[in-house]
Amino acid sequence: MLEAGNNAELPPIPGKRYFTIGEVSELCGVKPHVLRYWEQEFPQLKPVKRRGNRRYYQRQDVIVIRQIRSLLYEEGFTIGGARNKLTGEEARSDVTQSQQIIRQVRLELEEVLRILRR
Description:
The chain is mainly alpha-helical. It has one domain: Multidrug-efflux Transporter Regulator, Chain: A, Domain 2, CATH 1.10.1660. Helix content is 62%, strand content 9%. It is built from four helices and three strands; from the N terminus they run βααββαα. It has a three-stranded antiparallel beta sheet. Strand 2 and strand 3 form a beta hairpin. The longest helix has 39 residues, at 79-117. The radius of gyration is 20 Å and the shape is elongated.
C-alpha cells in the first residue's frame, strides 16, 4: 500500500484521528472538489459526515486517497481501471484472510481429533 514514506513529494500524515477535507487536500495534493468526486467513484472512500455534511477523513482514507492519486496521476489508470484495481486488491486480501482462518481452524480440528484418539 502507498504510505507517506514511499511518496517523497507528499507530506507525512500526522498522527491525528480525523482530518478535514482541506487538510486531506493538502496531504494528498488534490483539490477538495476532486476528493468529493472520488467519493462517488470509489466505494472505499467513506468519510464520516457530521454537522452540516462536513467530511472527516480517517488515516486509512488518506492512505487510500494517496493510492488512488498514484494510480491515476502516476501510473496512468482511468477511474474505472483504478476502481477495478483497488477492488481486486481488496478481494485478494479477503481471500488470503479466509485461507488463513481455514488453515487455523483445520489445525485446531486436527489437534482435537488427535486428543480424541488417545
